[in-house]
């Protein structure tokens, strides 16, 4: 990319941006069948800490039966600061341009534009922080951009966007469309290319600004939130047509690309080498990427078995906890029985008998055994404790621990060799 801008396209000097309330920021929110999100997007624009924000919602021919009304309802959040434009479907670039034009008409003091898709949001400090970056920037700075957080299905992944690099910009897009653009620069280059309805229209706009001597400035803060609410997105569709879309960008800026052809070839090869991706297999896939794909496939194949093992582990843990609980119950029951008067009397009687002379000891123990047998016959039988049922879906070897039965209060404590059984 030429280091010196074409004098015919050099932007005129503009007063520096001040981060106070004088700078009016208009959020342009195009919407096609995303009425369920429009309230969130509008609120995030209205609730900026910067006091001077306006909103233009563009209903781009929504046909789901609800989005037009949702857009009108969102305008009621602040009728003085929100406008709604209903138009036949013209595509995303045209909808953004129409919103920018409506903002210039209804809010003529607008200095800066923010293009926010209907299903995304921004942090409350978005406008204030980016205005601060523009305030200290040279006059050739056309826009300020920030880092992006991918929410919901994006699992809060952070895109740490790179610093502005006009050469790298010709190879890949550097930042999302949601940034703070000086209105004068946007209008001077003609806004978005309305023929680029298939995607990459924001990337093409940044290249066009750069070709006209403008630059972007990065704010290294995650102030923009891209809601990944579907497996299929506009970006996915654009990436699927990457070769054709990228070729269309080159065709629009052929002189620029041809003037930087050698530098771009070197830069691209350097990027491939940095990630060891210039070694290709017969399918033209980088070998490290092929290994990564194979590892990912094996991981997905192993996931069902891992889920089964995790389920079995949970069942075993449940069986262990139940067995431990039964053992503790049995221990408490034994302690309670040991504390009863009958057991204490039983222990005392055996102790007294043990100190008696042998002939008398045998007689007393015989009588105690007969008494114990009579008590057992007369007493109601206690139900036999049932074994612990295994936990549902537990492995067969995960058996429960049976509950110990209560001690027989009349059972013999010990006996001397040669003596009869003790009661």
Describe what is shown at a glance.
The chain is of the alpha/beta class and 423 residues long.
Q: Could you walk me through the main structural features you see in this protein, from its secondary elements to its overall organization?
A:
The protein is built from 14 helices and 9 strands. The chain is an alpha/beta fold. The chain folds into 2 domains: 16-274, Spore Coat Polysaccharide Biosynthesis Protein SpsA, Chain A, CATH 3.90.550.10; 310-378 and 389-423, no CATH class. Strands 1, 2, 3, 4, 5, 6, 7, 8 and 9 form a 9-stranded mixed sheet that branches. Helix 1 (35-46) links the parallel strand 1 (24-31) and strand 2. Helix 1 runs parallel beside helix 2 (67-75). The radius of gyration is 40 Å and the shape is elongated.
SSE class: alpha/beta
CATH topology of the largest domain: Spore Coat Polysaccharide Biosynthesis Protein SpsA, Chain A
Radius of gyration: 40 Å
CATH class of the largest domain: Alpha Beta
Euclidean distance between termini CA atoms:
107 Å
State the total count of DSSP E strands.
9
- Beta-strand percentage range: 5-15%
| Uncertain parts | 1-20, 394-423
Give the ordered list of helices and strands: EHEHEHEEHEEHEHHEHHHHHHH
Biggest β-sheet strands, sense, barrel: 9 strands, mixed
Look at the structure and name the CATH superfamily of the largest domain. Spore Coat Polysaccharide Biosynthesis Protein SpsA, Chain A
């Amino acid at each position: 990319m030429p280091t010196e801008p074409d004098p015919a396209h050099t932007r005129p000097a503009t007063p520096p941006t001040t981060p106070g309330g004088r700078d009016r920021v208009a959020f342009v929110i195009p919407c096609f069948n995303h009425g369920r999100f429009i309230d969130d997007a509008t609120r995030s624009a209205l609730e900026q800490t910067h006091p001077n924000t306006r909103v233009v919602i563009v209903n781009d021919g929504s046909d789901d039966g609800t989005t037009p009304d949702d857009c009108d309802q969102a305008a009621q959040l602040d009728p003085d600061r929100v406008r709604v434009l209903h138009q036949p479907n013209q595509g995303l670039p045209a909808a953004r341009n129409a919103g920018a034009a409506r903002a210039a008409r209804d809010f003529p003091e607008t200095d800066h534009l923010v293009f926010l898709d209907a299903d995304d949001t921004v942090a409350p400090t978005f406008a204030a922080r980016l205005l601060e970056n523009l305030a200290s920037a040279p006059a050739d700075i056309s826009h300020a951009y920030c880092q992006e957080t991918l929410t919901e299905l994006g699992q809060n992944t952070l895109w740490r966007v790179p610093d502005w690099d006009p050469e790298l910009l010709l190879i890949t897009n550097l930042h999302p469309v949601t940034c703070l653009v000086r209105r004068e620069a946007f209008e001077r280059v003609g806004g978005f290319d309305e023929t680029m309805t298939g995607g990459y229209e924001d990337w093409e706009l940044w290249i066009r600004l750069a070709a006209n001597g403008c630059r972007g400035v990065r704010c290294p803060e995650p102030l923009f939130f891209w809601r990944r609410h579907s497996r299929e997105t506009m970006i996915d569709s654009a990436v699927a047509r990457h070769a054709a879309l990228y070729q269309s960008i080159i065709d629009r800026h052929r002189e620029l690309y041809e003037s930087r052809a050698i530098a771009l070839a070197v830069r691209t090869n350097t990027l491939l080498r940095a990630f060891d991706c210039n070694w290709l297999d017969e399918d033209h896939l980088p070998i490290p990427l092929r290994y990564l794909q194979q590892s990912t496939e094996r991981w997905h194949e192993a996931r069902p078995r891992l889920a089964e093992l995790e389920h079995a582990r949970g069942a075993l843990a449940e069986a262990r906890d139940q067995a431990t609980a039964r053992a503790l119950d049995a221990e408490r029951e034994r302690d309670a029985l040991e504390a009863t008067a009958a057991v204490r009397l039983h222990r005392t009687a055996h102790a007294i008998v043990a100190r008696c002379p042998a002939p008398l000891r045998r007689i007393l123990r015989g009588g105690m055994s007969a008494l114990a047998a009579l008590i057992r016959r007369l007493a109601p039988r206690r139900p036999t404790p049932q074994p612990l049922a295994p936990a549902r879906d537990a492995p067969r070897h995960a058996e429960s621990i049976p509950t110990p039965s209560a001690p027989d209060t009349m059972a013999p404590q010990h006996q001397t060799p040669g003596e009869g059984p003790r009661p």
